[in-house]
Amino acid sequence: MPFITPDALLAHWQGHRRLTRRVIDAFPNDKLFSFSLGGMRPFGGLAMEMLSMAGPMVRGAVTGDWNAPSSRDSRPKQEVLQLWDESTEQLNALWPQIPPEGFAETITAFGQYTDTLYNLILYVIDNEIHHRGQGYVYLRALGVEPPPFYERS
Question: What is the pTM of this model?
């Protein structure tokens, strides 16, 4: 029996995604793609990076199509949130199509990242958590109280 089931992994990931969505939403509209500290990228660009990884990773695992949107251009916050919601729906629709044994298979994602699907997905989750932490720092520097990090519902 695996340590965590595919359904439990998706539920865990979606909890992180709900929290990250709240972090995106907490940003002032004019700061999402313009504010940064210490040479780090603005959070809007980080959010677009997360979007270019999550849905495309699962879609690629299911279909073998490893094309991912690469635009990280500035856009209104509401558009980023809409893209986030669409990505969430895509994950929920595609996830059940991954056979349980598929998570242990070694694949090459996006033509360059070779690992088991479990590890590739864990990397995407870890990347989101890392960048969300940057978002927390930015929000505090802007004088905005970020959402509680432990509330993922």
Answer: 0.94
